[in-house]
Specification:
Keywords: Signal. Residues 1-26 form the signal peptide. By secondary structure, this protein is mainly beta. It has one domain (34-172). Helix content is 8%, strand content 46%. The protein has helices at 13-16, 41-44, 167-172, and strands spanning 7-9, 24-25, 34-38, 54-60, 63-68, 74-79, 82-88, 94-98, 103-107, 113-117, 121-124, 138-149, 155-166. The strands form two sheets. Strands 1, 2, 5, 6, 9, 10, 11, 12 and 13 form a nine-stranded antiparallel beta sheet that branches. A hairpin with a 5-residue loop joins strand 9 (103-107) and strand 10 (113-117).
């Protein structure tokens, strides 16, 4: 998954997208953290996320069910507990979030994808890909969120029935 696309941490989305064959029940994801680096707009311009670089450490005990759909898309269903520690790399300020979802991410053959998730989630997209949907580059959401991203990484739709927190603003404080 490209870091310029909207990404979802309701589960180890980065790891979950590596497999792509038939219906399967995956083993629990490792509890060792996955580390995700997001560049800041201070060095990456609009290809960045927050005004400063961010590191996400993701811990998961989630179950991932993977299914190949008739249209060639791959559907990932995530359930179980997960946490993310998000750190402002310039200041060392960190915030821990429950990102247990649950949710579904459907990845299409052209690289586009949709997310339908409930509960608490952490989502990110580069500043250049927040329009026209107007989403936050790094957001902690609670409630139901549904979004679509095209094959170029552009957010094309975003609906949230719940609350969204600007994680960049929280880390800058």
């Amino acid at each position: 998954m490209k870091t310029t696309r909207t990404s979802l941490v309701i589960a180890a989305a980065a790891a979950g997208l590596l497999a792509a064959t038939g219906p399967a029940q995956a083993d629990p994801l490792p509890t060792e953290p996955q580390t995700i680096q997001l560049p800041g707009t201070d060095t990456a311009g609009d290809a960045g996320y927050c005004p400063f670089p961010v590191t996400i450490q993701y811990f998961s005990n989630q179950q991932v069910t993977e299914t190949t759909l008739p249209n060639g898309a791959t559907e990932f269903r995530f359930t179980g507990h997960a946490e993310a520690i998000v750190t402002n790399d310039d200041t060392g300020e960190s915030i821990t979030y429950n990102v247990s979802g649950p949710g579904t991410q459907t990845v299409f053959p052209d690289g586009s994808f949709t997310i339908d998730a409930a509960g608490p989630n952490l989502l990110w997209t580069s500043v250049e890909n927040t329009e026209p949907a107007g989403v936050l580059p790094l957001a902690y959401t609670t409630g139901r969120v549904r979004l679509a991203v095209d094959g170029n990484g552009q957010t094309t739709s975003y609906r949230l029935n719940g609350r969204s927190t600007d994680v960049c603003a929280e880390l800058a404080a």
